[in-house]
Amino acid sequence: MIVPLNRAIPWPVSRVLTIEETVHLDGLLAALGERYDEAFQKCQVVRLEGPGTVADAAHQLIVAAAEFRQASEERAHATRSGERTSTAPAWNSSTEKMNDELDAFIEMARAMIAVD
After folding, report:
1. N or C: which terminus of the chain carries fewer CB neighbours within 10 A?
2. Cα dihedral 7, 93, 31, 77 sign
3. 24-82 tens-digit pLDDT
4. What is the four-CA torsion angle of 62, 68, 72, 78, rounded to 10 degrees?
């Protein structure tokens, strides 16, 4: 979702989005919401049934994903309203954090699978 959203939400804002761009962005944000909901459910299963270290990694991943989702919505709102600020509100840091947490979760899960 990072790459398509980054393309759909130009930063810094240089112009108002067209109607077509806004419709496309709304579709991406809806897809992000659906993927977040699915990831949340799966992370909850891991937190309930998985070993402690993997459960902790799943929790950190879903927190980071929630921050990314919020930052995406904030950036989309700023772009839609034509706010010409010089920095992307929390976008870069939330994107990096989510990627880092995803990598940590994958490594933790791989280590657990390798042990079994």
Report:
1. C
2. negative
3. 999 999 999 999 999 999 999 999 998 889 999 999 999 999 999 999 998 888 888 77
4. 130
- Residues with Cβ < 8 Å from 10, sequence gap 6 or more? 79
Q: 51 with 112: CB under 8 angstroms?
A: yes
Instruction: Give the list of residues 6+ apart from residue 107 with CB closer than 8 angstroms, or none.
Output: none
Domain boundaries, the chain: 2-8+16-115
What span, in angstroms and rounded, lies between the C-alpha atoms of 84 and 112? Answer: 47
Structure-token pair, residue 55: 């459960």
- What's this model's pTM, rounded to 2 decimal places? 0.87
**In angstroms, rounded to a whole number, what is the distance separating the alpha carbons of residues 57 and 43?**
9
Amino acid identity at 100? D
The predicted structure's pLDDT at residue 12: 81
